[in-house]
Design goal:
alpha/beta, three-stranded antiparallel sheet, eight-stranded mixed sheet, homodimer, 13 strands, Aspartate Aminotransferase, domain 1, 42% helix, Aspartate Aminotransferase, domain 2, 424 residues
Chain lengths: 424, 424
């Protein structure tokens, strides 16, 4: 029998994540160098701390370590979050925090809590694919706003908002990744953050602030003051703030959190109850042990220096191999370089050639909700080793030059060749 | 500012789980003996096996142990599931299996995949509250079907289905917990399982089969043959089967799975991508190690004997303390006794007195989608130690007798006293 007639309307519009799909595809390519996923570098995971903590937690002394736990999260961890948040300038009560199974769950729960089918969500152009999927899956209508060098264009934002209001559309929230945005690496300027809060107050719009990368600034070009969350200055209580341990400890522990007004957290608790009952108890305790052991503090500088160096390796390789052809804004933190190809070159066509050369990335279109971005691509430098970054960018350079040559030769790009290319 | 105007229609109808609420409430009562949650007994968790496995997995040898993983699940675990399923009579391909973050996530993903607002889901009367919440949260309309001693009443099921069809309602699926149902402990008879499959084929209805307790039969009254899943005989591919390691290994590892036709699993993968990216990588590997170490086989008999003995302890205590007042069907497996109070007695009123006496349970109404069940309650014998079961049932017996005396004395029950009583 076919199941098609049993699927919900939401199921019919669900799309595969381009990033996840690149992962499945890449698994079949020998010697692949992948710049596709935003994976942290596992050499930085606090293996020893976690191993010692696990040995203790699994001694059986505390039966709760493997039992069902409170939906809101492991109480000592929720308390610890308060300290982490204060270091970012965010004051919060215990009741304003909830642990989630990764920030992706935070996005999903927020989406289900705030979005009715057809509601408009305002997002940056481009924006994080995981957010696009979470909002799409509750049948939101995503409307993009262009970015400038210091982040989202507030004038364009206001024009878009006014137009939507005039059309009678309901805007549910503005989704922002202010710190080292995925995929562009852009950092919203401090003055613009203030103006965004003023704008949200004036227009009575909720802001969903996604901050997985704030701690990962590059010391040569940014500091903690540059990454101060909007939530820190949210006097009216309209910012829902998400952050995660996935980039600073380890993503396999699936532990993240949301800070929001108590009424929102109460509802998040309800929707999480039915979504997965609770986040893993061992995972939460491991995270709590690592944080209270001071790992984030003692290892923070090492993490920042590590990713800064990798960025430098990739930027130098890009400049060396294809500096004459492509451009990218210099990121001041995070995991990504956002590359614009020469005019007329299509990233899908380049990807086809790149995969043949055993190097991968995510095409920019996956991050645009308006169908644009065909000449852009996202390169993640966070996971591959330095020599692999060099080799991978060399391969990518050859793929780009081949594609240019092919277009000059016959006006025919590999995108026309029928080769299967993943789309976001 | 108030957030109410920003919440989605779904958020406005979300309700707190009575079981979760009992947990929060119970945390504030000293010396509470809780028969409320269906928690497994932590003395049975395979602590030593998991501790050794964690030491090895966290050595840093395999970076993937703490990295993001495939949404579908950890490949060796998915392969191992095939063997477990075969032991239950279910043949499946790799592509028909997906790991979920607990079975609650399985229910949630299935709900989102199959249900449009207003669609009818057929459920047993009473049924599992977690399923009620998951289906409610996508705004399903739940319609209950009574149960007989050998499970759901098929004639009533068919009448209900025909009535709904005549009304032009769309029935999306039938949700069943065939093995030691939560909350009643009932076991669907083998002949009825066959007839349910025939009925589903004839009426072209999807069945969602939830089987967390199938391995936990009581050897004195049931065996593996009695728990053969409907999925094992699903020749037309209309059964979506959920099971879990929460009751047989440990719930804190949040690892469960769904077996379904490949087209369904592909969609479950999509919705899970945006729900939490992947289930915890360490958790999945710990489960895989425990299963391949043979824990389910070597410890299976011990688990079954343990819960059988606890059931006996609770049944004897009930017979001793209030055997003259209450009735319950003898469960042949699982975690629960389903108690019916004397005529006219209200479980909410009894709960108020019980909490004052430091004993708790879940009132039956939480499990009924039709508002009935006021004279029923669920007692879980799985977690408390034997002497606590004895003491707790003694307290419950006093609470019930006090409530009867109060009603006889003044026609006034404690339910009228204004004391806050949790409702499902």
């Amino acid at each position: 029998m076919t199941f098609d007639r049993f699927f919900s309307s939401a199921a019919l519009v669900m799309r595969e994540s381009a990033i996840r799909r690149m992962g499945a595809l890449g698994a079949r390519i020998p010697d692949l160098i992948s710049f596709a996923p935003g994976y942290p570098d596992p050499v930085l995971f606090p293996w020893d701390t976690l191993r010692d903590a696990a040995a203790d937690l699994l001694s059986g002394q505390d039966p709760a370590a493997l039992q069902y736990g409170a939906t809101r999260g492991y109480r000592p961890l929720i308390e610890t979050l308060g300290t982490l948040l204060e270091a970012r300038g965010i004051r919060s009560t215990f009741e304003e925090r909830i642990v989630t199974s990764g920030s992706q769950q935070g996005l999903d729960l927020v989406a289900r809590l705030l979005i009715d089918p057809g509601d408009v969500i305002l997002v940056e152009l481009p924006t994080y694919t995981g957010a696009i999927s979470a909002f799409n899956n509750v049948r939101a209508s995503l409307v993009g706003v262009p970015q400038e060098a210091d982040g989202i264009d507030i004038e364009a934002l206001d024009r878009t908002f006014e137009r939507l209001r005039a059309e009678g559309r309901r805007v549910r929230f503005l989704y922002l990744v202010p710190n080292f945005q995925n995929p562009t690496g852009l950092l919203i300027g401090l003055d613009k953050r203030r103006r965004l809060l003023e704008w949200a107050d004036r227009q009575d719009v909720v802001i969903v602030e996604d901050d997985p990368y704030g701690d990962l600034y590059f010391p040569d070009s940014a500091g903690p003051a540059d990454t101060r969350p909007l939530k820190a200055d949210d006097t009216s209580g309209r910012v829902i703030y998400l952050s995660s341990f996935s980039k600073t400890l380890a993503p396999g522990l699936r532990t993240a959190w949301v800070v929001a007004p108590e009424a929102v957290v109460q509802k998040l608790d309800l929707v999480k109850q039915a979504a997965d009952i609770c986040t893993g108890g061992l995972d939460q305790r491991l995270v709590h042990r690592a944080v209270t052991a001071g790992v984030l503090v003692t290892e923070g500088d090492r993490l920042r220096a590590h990713y800064q160096r990798k960025r430098t390796v990739m930027e130098r390789a890009l400049a060396r191999e294809i500096g004459d052809l492509v451009t990218w804004p210099a990121p001041r933190g995070g995991f990504f370089l956002w590359v614009t190809l020469p005019a007329g070159l299509n990233a899908d066509a380049v990807l086809t050639r790149a995969l043949q050369a055993s190097v991968s990335f995510v095409t920019g279109t996956a991050f645009f909700v308006d169908g644009s971005g065909h000449d852009t691509l996202r390169l993640s430098f966070s996971q591959p080793a330095d020599d692999r970054i060099d080799e991978g960018i060399a391969r990518l350079g050859r793929a780009i030059r081949e594609e240019i040559d092919a277009q000059l030769a016959g006006g025919r790009s590999s995108a026309d060749s029928g080769t299967s290319v993943p789309r976001g």
